[in-house]
Amino acid sequence: MPGDCQRLAHRRRRSPSPSAGCELIAIGRLRPSAPFGVSPAAGDTAGVTDTLTSLLDEARDLYDDAVGLRRTLHRAPEIGLHLPRTQATVLDAIGGLGLDVRTGESLSSVVAVLDGARPGPTVLLRGDMDALPLHEDTDLEFASGTEDAMHACGHDTHVAMLAGAARLLARRREEIAGRVLFMFQPGEEGCHGAKHMLEEGLLEAAGEPPTGAFALHISPMFASGTINLRGGPQLASSDLLRITVRGRGGHASMPHGANDPIPVACQIVNALQTLVTRRTSVFEPVVITIAHISAGTTSNIIPETAFLEGTLRTLSGQVRSAVRGHIRRLAEGIAAAHEMTADVDMEVGYPVTMNDGPFAGFAHDVAAELLGDAGVAEMDTPIMGAEDFSYVLERVPGAMAFLGACPPGVAPEEAAPNHSNRAIFDEPAMVNGVATYAAVALRHLAGDSVDATRR
């Protein structure tokens, strides 16, 4: 259960109501309301503060390059774990920066390490690279040229922003005490790409494990240019649910001579919703959605089987485990009551994306210093989508934040969301994303996120 350590500082404002509109948040700089931590290497953070003041200007200077990289990737999306063209584009984009670069063995990942001029900790920055299997209907001049593939979740912008941040940080190599580990990841969309990268030694790539990890995810659900996050659960776990009800087929005119699985399947669907309200606490969010039902071939045949498919979302491992057990007992019990059987298959998906409370507070403060108080907000609630950056956050204290990119002239509740075939992301927001990636890395390596845990 989230505790006080997962609450963000009292001065942090809440995420704006969708009715607030989507205009790009004006970029400003405010002095932090409290001193940041003292860097063991530098003795104070004055140098880092001076560096942050120039990050936005430099990110603006990189804007055309970031847009060009994003659009190159958008035109040629690739799906899954193997993204050879995307990988080659990333390698070209970060070439010449003096990074120690290696590629994946079982997937088209790119891991790059920037060594600072002095010893220190390691911070991980992540950008995912894969697209989704759907046809694009945006009418953008740089729309996908690959049939049934689209960067509908904005991963092309993530790559462009992370590559831009690598350029900003490489320029500051002499100021850095420690290392930056850049994680360009394929296979986020259901392929467990982060888990594969961990298994291939991601966290050992810089010589010692990272002490912090940070990722941005673009979204039209928030005002353009804003950083939105919370301590504790940021996104839900996700499990795939399949149920096959097995009865006995027959003629539709004589149901008494068969054992029709369709009404029983319908009972299971309804009972799953009762399960949510009667077997789980109202204070522990659970979503069970049956999104696919299939049975029968024509109007006068009772089929032998009925198939259900859907998703289970929770915000805690304990509730996730308990609900999985409830689902199995419920489906098998209802089927048995009708002298049928139910085969229940639950495929384990991504864990809860759990933001470390102190690190989320630190990232909030950095974004506020960089963008001004109006440019960052604490989210009131998690989002019940899922993310495989959760695997990294199980191993490293860190946080994922949403970068708002609602298109101009559209309210967030009306904008086509991530995963829509009509999703459009406001590209100027990438300036704030590039600068935020770099600022979080610099502040962490200066010792600020460590000191945040002591406030």
Short summary of the structure?
By secondary structure, this protein is α/β, with parallel strands linked by helices.
Description:
The chain has 455 residues and is an alpha/beta fold. It folds into two domains: 4-233 and 352-452, Zn peptidases (Aminopeptidase, 3-Layer(aba) Sandwich); 237-347, Alpha-Beta Plaits, CATH 3.30.70.360. It is built from eleven helices and 16 strands. It has helices spanning 46-61, 63-75, 84-94, 155-171, 193-199, 261-278, 317-337, 357-371, 389-393, 429-445, 448-452; strands spanning 100-103, 110-115, 118-128, 177-185, 212-219, 227-229, 232-235, 237-246, 250-251, 286-295, 301-302, 305-314, 341-347, 353-355, 376-378, 398-404. The strands form four sheets. It has an eight-stranded mixed β-sheet, with helices on both faces. Strand 3 (118-128), helix 4 and strand 4 (177-185) form a beta-alpha-beta unit. Helix 2 packs antiparallel against helix 4 and helix 8 crosses helix 10. The longest helix is centred in the C-terminal third of the chain and has 21 residues, at 317-337. It starts with 45 loop residues before the first helix and ends with a helix.
Features:
455 residues; alpha/beta; Aminopeptidase; eight-stranded mixed β-sheet; four-stranded antiparallel β-sheet; 16 strands; 22% strand; disordered N terminus
CATH superfamily of the largest domain: Zn peptidases
- Strand residue content: 15-25%
| Radius of gyration computed on alpha carbons | 24 Å
User: Under the CATH scheme, which architecture of the largest domain would be assigned?
Assistant: 3-Layer(aba) Sandwich
Average pLDDT score: 90
Beta strand count: 16
Tally of helical runs: 11
